[in-house]
Design goal:
- The complex is a heterotrimer of chains A (about 325), B (about 220) and C (about 700).
- Chain A is mainly alpha-helical.
- Chain A has eleven helices and one strand.
- Chain B has one domain.
- Chain B has seven helices and no strands.
- The termini of chain B are far apart.
- Chain C has a domain of about 45 residues.
- Helix content of chain C is about 70%, strand content about 5%.
- Chain C has 27 helices and eight strands.
- In chain C, helix 3 packs parallel to helix 13, helix 3 runs antiparallel to helix 19 and helix 6 packs across helix 9.
- Chain C is globular.
- The N and C termini of chain C lie far apart (about 65 Å).
- The relative contact order of chain C is 0.07.
- The chains are: A mainly alpha (about 325), B mainly alpha (about 220), C mainly alpha (about 700).
- Chains in contact: A-B, A-C.
- The interface between A and C is large, with 89 and 87 residues.
- Strand 1 of chain A pairs parallel with strand 6 of chain C, so a sheet runs across the interface.
Chain lengths: ~325, ~220, ~700
């Protein structure tokens, strides 16, 4: 906090990376999925056009709903902004790294989910209740798997502070190939698919009551409310991809604030996020969406992968 | 061979052993018989690569033959035989479980812990040259336990074969990790034994299917009367 | 400063007097009132107001006392000789007592204010004098439990607490469920008390006195297996009161049966008395040399309690039973901190134990505030709609805006979400557990990650349960006549809830001062190695690890609210002024939505019921009523029952065994005088033979 200017500059860079790039990440995923299906697909910039269009549209409010309906989009967006300030993307350590750690990040996502689930029940429609119920049930079994995957990463670094984890790992590159890391990475990858509502857990493109989870909760939203909610979930995907790439493979991240290092950091971040988006799209295209009651088995696999990482490399190995 | 070379080989063996264990878990977590066979093929392939790495690292030539046999027989031939069987009997999925998937995954996790403590007590004299040898040994013991577990809790005869073959993979891996492989004649004997066993079991499955119209081993009990 | 002790003594006397007056005067007043016909109700109203106001005054005095003890650091010690049998009466208020006293007073004061408005309904039907007597005795006995410095005094007020609660639970004594709940409660409470008596007798036999001062640090001087016996007696004895699984069966029956203000006190404060007892015995008495299996046992019980508590809560649609099961869950979370502290102490890491214990104690305070708030909210809902069944509610957010807002704050707090107080204590618990991972003991290395995973599970399940509870009760359309006729609560009720909301906010956004105090408390309890581990520096909550782990609650809350400006600005910039239109929710093409189209509470929790079906073993019965036409079936009844595992496999066999052995023993009661004379004769002969 000794120099305000770099502090603000880096924070702004963080926000830009996540906020501005998030729709592009979604665009890349959608385009890749389209290519897998041998279609041309919409342009990767389509999500930006969609958001711009939504802002100009009028907002339709059900008379049944309460102040929660009108408040939640803003809360969701601002919470995700706070998370974006905490997650290292281009530079580590982030200026506000002392404000919150990985547990804070997980619980801030839980805060957003809590309010969006309440909105599902607020509108009085059966779809909303359906989405809220499924979303909260899946979230409850995702959290242990996520916590355990994070635990193994935090265990090596000795702290739950995200910037510290990233910094420690970037100084010892050979630790990135540690099988424990790879196992925990696979566990966290499955968790990412579950948390961001991707196939095989939830289909983000469907509106059929048999299959939708996240879409059902926000069915009644329109106009700028919908824009904020959509943007917040796109940011959630981008943040999770940033976590996956920087906690496990922080190659190229800038540890000093020189223009050269920051430039390499930006390029490395864009590259890693791009690759992960392609992988997510590939996984989405090659798997079918699971039946709701098969999802716990998938998450148990994620749990076991993280547990294996802990058993083989921390509990016994040391 | 230089020490740095040995360390990087050790690291790669470590990663591959973890991947082999993951394939065993994926077998436990799945319902699809075709998926089992593919996982088994990948598992044997990785095992063969581990054997090749041991050859490269330590120059023990007799393992080379075992490695090649592993890849040819277990990664290619046996999966082909089993796939043919599936095509003929048209059974695709394991439906009935005596212990459901979530609980079996947790139990297998516990078995890994057990295998680790057994491996630690066996290796009370540490081998200074391969740092990953204790983990590879624990992976192999875990695979034996998981293979046996799969045989115990699944009902379809084909899954029993996969369980048996997983156990055998575990035995092979443990041989690699402690004693640089077993004497060649033992290895070759085991391989042919396995091949013949699979062929005979294949015939049996076909026969069972013709008699009962299913390959669930529960029904074999009715043969008593 | 020299008259500070006298001042504190004075405050203590004020506290005790206030409760006693509040207990004794109202019955007299209402008795007078009943004998006079005209001004009878006026006497009753005055009695009610007086009773609760004096309780409020005493609570304020209690708060003042606790703050002065906590800030000064020296305990208040009062001894009066030869007042009770078996020794004197000693009052010893140290920092631990002061902390719990503060919790009791805080929640007690809020509940007393609430009761001024709530009790108007009770007034018509019940004996107000008797109720107020029991209410004040209840509060007084809880204060007595934490300030007692002598085992006999302790047991005396402990019994008083149990008995007062028995009468308070059975206020609605016409309802057989209420009577059964109270009976179950009093039986279990006495089982617990019996074990406590055993424990104190054991300690007496080794020290020759009942004074707590002589018990301090005695653990190292007790031979062999005796410390473990004392530990187990304390764990079971206090565990019954705290509601640990499997000793919890009274809690879901008793808390809903009591009137809501009493439930708030029971859930918020009384079960913490069990925690106080455990902290006192485990850390103060049994000292630093303890075996590691104690900590592991407490951790296992804690994890089981929290997971099972929240799972059973999810299946409930009686609002108060749901909250009661959540109390079991949160006791589990508190015990995770206690168990971790015990484990770390036994392995010699006092510093880590300090962090765990700070987390546990902070959660005690937090849970008291938000559970009190939630029960008061449930009481308001019950008061307004006359039903506890959330399947019949809905849409209350429009008719009861303040109550619903306060209940929402309570729900967010209990789910452990930032920026409220639940998040801070759960964060501290996670940190304490994560630090334990570096201890080289194998059992610890397996226990810690599993505990972390299960704590994450309970947090997420609690959030799911409160989405259901808040959403079905307050949001959407009213599902029945009960809900349509609701009205907002009276000002005192709103005021009391608002006070607790402010406390939750303060504890979440500015936890500094309280945590500082808890820190020094833990230091006094565990030894100076443990002090100052959780430090607060310029708005940051620090936990020492090999590298820094911190959270900045104030800044976090500020940014969460402040950054809302960005989307608002973005909306204005990108879209201009918002154009709104009101249109009905999509009803699949029908003209409008009906209340019956909404999700039900049972339906909401169905996915979780299916995922955890091995634990629930739910059975459901569908009954279709007989009607003339096979095409229209107007009446289908659906009944869902989850199996109560502990009743079926643990208590029922135990009870059957007990009853069977009682039957066997019954044979000696033949009913014939000759046999009884024969017994006396035989005993006499044997005595003469053997006592020579």
């Amino acid at each position: 906090m000794t120099e305000i200017a770099p502090f603000i500059a880096v924070s702004l860079l963080q926000l830009v990376m996540i906020v501005i790039l998030a729709p592009l990440v979604t665009g890349i995923v959608k385009k890749t999925k389209a290519r897998f299906q041998r279609r041309r697909g919409a342009s990767v910039l389509q999500p930006y056009y969609d958001l711009a269009k939504l802002f100009k549209k009028e907002v339709v409010i059900p008379p049944v709903s309460s102040w929660l309906f009108r408040f939640t989009p803003y809360l969701a967006f601002s919470s995700t902004l706070v998370i974006a300030l905490l997650v290292p993307t281009v530079v580590a350590p982030v200026p506000l790294h002392w404000m919150g750690d990985i547990i804070t990040v997980i619980y801030l996502f839980a805060l957003v989910r809590f309010f969006v689930a309440l909105v599902g029940l607020d509108t009085g429609s059966a779809f909303g209740g359906l989405g809220s119920s499924r979303e909260m049930s899946i979230a409850s079994i995702v959290e242990p798997a996520m916590m355990l995957a994070i635990f193994s990463a935090a265990g090596t670094a000795g702290s739950t502070n995200l910037s510290v984890i990233v910094q420690k790992l970037s100084t010892t590159p050979e630790a990135m190939l540690n099988p424990a890391h790879l196992l925990a990475f696979s566990g966290l990858f499955i968790v990412t698919l579950a948390e961001t509502g991707r196939v095989p857990v939830d289909n983000p493109a469907t509106h059929l009551e048999l299959t939708m989870i996240h879409e059902a909760m926000i069915l009644e939203y329109s106009g700028r409310y919908l824009a904020f909610i959509e943007w917040a979930s796109q940011m959630k995907l981008a943040i999770f991809l940033a976590l996956l790439s920087n906690i496990f493979f922080p190659v190229g991240i800038a540890t000093v604030l020189t223009p050269w290092a920051v430039g390499i950091g930006v390029l490395a971040f864009l590259f890693k996020i791009g690759v992960l988006s392609l992988v997510v799209a590939a996984v989405e295209s090659t798997n079918a969406k699971l039946r709701l009651f098969r999802v716990p088995e998938l998450l148990m696999v994620a749990f076991i992968l993280s547990l294996l990482a802990l058993i083989l490399y921390f509990i016994i190995g040391s | 061979m230089g020490i740095a070379n040995l360390q990087s080989i050790g690291l790669v063996i470590d990663i591959l052993a973890a991947a082999i264990l993951v394939t065993a878990f994926l077998i436990v977590s799945s319902r699809n018989l075709v998926f089992y066979i593919r996982l088994f093929a990948i598992q044997s392939l990785l095992l063969g690569v581990v054997a090749l790495l041991v050859v490269v690292g330590y120059g023990e030539m007799h393992i080379l033959i075992a490695a090649i046999l592993t890849i040819v027989i277990k990664a290619v031939a046996i999966p082909l035989v089993l796939t043919k069987i599936i095509e003929r009997i048209q059974v695709q999925k394991e439906i009935d479980f005596s212990i459901n998937i979530t609980v079996s995954l947790l139990l297998c996790g516990g078995m890994v812990i057990l295998a680790d403590s057994v491996a630690q007590s066996i290796l009370s004299v540490q081998r200074p040259d391969i740092p990953a040898v204790s983990r590879v040994l624990s992976v192999s013991i875990a695979m034996m336990l998981i293979g046996l577990f799969v045989m115990m809790t699944r009902k379809k005869a084909l899954t029993q074969i996969i369980g048996l073959l997983t156990m055998e993979n575990g035995v092979f891996l443990s041989g690699l990790s402690i004693t640089y492989g077993m004497p060649l004649i033992v290895e070759v004997g085991i391989f042919f034994d396995i091949l013949v066993a699979v062929l005979i079991l294949g015939v049996f499955i076909f026969r069972i299917n013709k008699t009962f119209d299913s390959i669930s081993i529960d029904l074999l009990r009715s043969l008593r009367h | 400063m020299s008259d500070w002790p006298q001042l504190r003594l004075l405050i203590l006397i004020v506290t005790v007097t206030g409760y006693s007056l509040g207990a004794l005067l109202p019955p007299i007043l209402s008795a007078i009132g009943r004998s006079r016909l005209h001004s009878g109700p006026a006497f009753d109203t005055f009695a009610r107001n007086f009773g609760f106001t004096s309780a409020l005054v005493s609570s304020l005095a209690g708060c003042a006392l606790s703050i002065s003890i906590l800030l000064a650091g020296e305990p208040l010690h009062v001894e009066i000789q030869n007042t009770l049998p078996l020794g004197g009466m000693a009052i010893h208020v140290d920092m631990l007592s002061g902390f719990f006293l503060g919790t009791i007073s805080l929640v007690g004061g809020a509940v007393s204010v609430y009761s001024l408005g709530y009790a108007t309904e009770l007034l018509q039907r019940r004996n107000m004098g008797f109720f107020l007597f029991m209410y004040n005795v209840f509060l007084l006995s809880m204060v007595g439990v934490v300030i007692a410095g002598h085992a006999v005094l302790f047991l005396f007020v402990w019994e008083g607490m149990s008995l007062a609660t028995y009468f308070l639970i059975s206020v609605e004594h016409e309802d057989p469920a209420s009577r059964r709940a109270a009976f179950l409660y009093v039986v279990m409470a006495h089982v617990g008390t019996a074990l406590l008596v055993v424990m104190f007798v054991i300690l007496y036999s080794f020290t020759g006195s009942f004074d707590f001062a002589t018990f301090k640090g005695i653990g190292s001087r007790l031979p062999g297996v005796v410390p473990s016996v004392v530990f187990l007696c304390a764990l079971i004895g206090f565990g019954v009161k705290a509601g640990i699984v499997p000793l919890h069966i009274w809690l879901p029956e008793a808390h809903p049966a009591a009137p809501s203000n009493v439930s708030a006190l029971m859930s918020g404060v009384m079960i913490k008395m069990g925690i106080y007892g455990m902290a006192r015995v485990f850390f103060d008495f049994l000292g630093p040399t303890i075996p590691s299996w104690w900590g592991l046992l407490v951790l296992i019980l804690a994890v089981t309690s929290s997971v099972l508590g929240v799972l059973y809560a999810l299946m409930e649609h009686d609002l108060k039973r749901l909250l009661a099961f959540h109390s079991i869950e949160n006791i589990g979370i508190i015990l995770m901190g206690v168990g971790a502290a015990l484990l770390f102490v036994s392995l010699g890491h006092a510093a880590l134990a300090g962090i765990a214990l700070v987390a546990a104690l902070y959660h005690v305070l937090n849970h008291a505030t938000f559970k009190g708030l939630l029960f008061l909210g449930a009481g308001s809902v019950l008061h307004a709609t006359h039903t506890r069944n959330i399947e019949n509610l809905g849409g209350l957010i429009r008719t009861m805006p303040w109550t619903s807002f306060f209940f929402l704050i309570g729900a967010v707090a209990i789910s452990g979400l930032p920026p409220l107080n639940g998040f801070i204590s759960e964060w501290l618990t996670f940190q304490a557990l994560l630090l334990g991972f570096h201890i080289p003991d194998l059992a610890v290395k397996i226990a810690v990650p599993l505990t972390v995973a299960l704590l994450a599970l309970t947090g997420a399940l609690a959030a799911a349960c409160f989405v259901k509870a808040f959403g079905i009760t307050f949001l959407g359309l009213p599902r029945s006549q009960h809900a349509e006729g609701a009205h907002e609560s009276s000002p005192t009720m709103i005021g009391a809830m608002g006070f607790l909301v402010i406390i939750c906010l303060v504890l979440g956004v500015v936890p500094g001062p309280v945590l500082f105090v808890v820190n020094s408390l833990v230091g006094a309890l565990l030894g100076t190695n443990a002090a100052g581990q959780v430090s607060l520096n310029g708005g940051l909550l620090f936990v020492p690890t090999s590298a820094l782990s911190s959270v900045a609650p104030t800044l976090l809350a500020g940014l969460l609210i402040g950054l809302i400006a960005i989307p608002v600005a973005a909306g204005l910039f990108l879209g201009g002024r918002m154009q709104k239109r009101v249109a009905m929710t999509w009803a699949c093409g029908l003209q409008r939505i009906e209340p019956q189209m909404q999700y039900t509470a049972t339906g909401f929790s169905k996915p979780i019921r299916m995922i955890f079906s091995t634990i629930y073993r739910a059975t459901h019965e569908i009954e279709i009523s007989e009607e003339s036409s096979p095409y229209f079936r107007p009446n289908i009844s659906y009944e869902l029952k989850t199996e109560s595992v502990f009743l079926k496999y643990f208590y029922d066999p135990a009870l059957t065994l007990l009853v069977a052995s009682a039957h066997l023993l019954r044979r000696i009661q033949t009913g014939r005088i000759q046999s009884y004379l024969a017994y006396i004769f035989i005993t006499l002969v044997l005595l003469l033979l053997f006592a020579r």
